[in-house]
Amino acid sequence: MKLYDMELSGNCYKVRLLLSLLDVDYEQVAVDLLNGEQKSAEYLAISPKGQVPALDDGGTVINDSQAILVYLAQKLKAEQYWPADAATQAQISYWLFTTANEIAHGPCAARLVKLFGADIDYESATARAYAVFDLMEAHLAEREFLVGSRATLADIAAFPYIALSGDGGLSLADYPNIGRWLARIKALPNFVGMPGVS
Ligand SMILES: N[C@@H](CCC(=O)N[C@@H](CS)C(=O)NCC(=O)O)C(=O)O
After folding, report:
1. 104 and 178 belong to one structural domain
2. Helices 122-139 & 109-116, crossing angle to 10 degrees?
3. Is residue 194 part of a domain?
């Protein structure tokens, strides 16, 4: 299994995190985003949007970090992370889509501005970030994990850009439930960090 990867990408990190939690060996292929390698003809043949992460599992290519998480959990029969029943899968999907929307346009976008100088409206990203923090803080008031009583793909997807929110100049000081949730994920066996998450 080959993961097209970039060390500082939170989207790549969520895939590395799941692979580590599941104790799966894989090959990392670094894509040089800072020099535009993701838009080369060779890489566009793998990822039509020219983005990381992408996964190549023996010729089956999967793009998009959320799609890769679902693929891996289903393929590797990681029932804890992607249980078989329809209602739980729908609840997990709610957080996968929240990650691809509110978290991507909030804390992830704020980090892109602060760390990489992206041309994104920082004030709008900050407002969106705190709105999704409010949503999660309330949701986690009486729960240990986002869905059910154990970590699932919902937590793995949402974790990186919430944990990296300090990189985007955001503070979680007023969000104690989120703080405890981050600590629970960091305590999972085989947890692995990335620069900015330890
Ligand atoms: N929805 C996609 C977003 C992927 C994405 O935005 N990847 C960034 C790195 S975190 C990227 O490849 N950016 C380079 C570019 O768009 O040119 C996912 O979750 O995988």
Report:
1. yes
2. 130
3. no
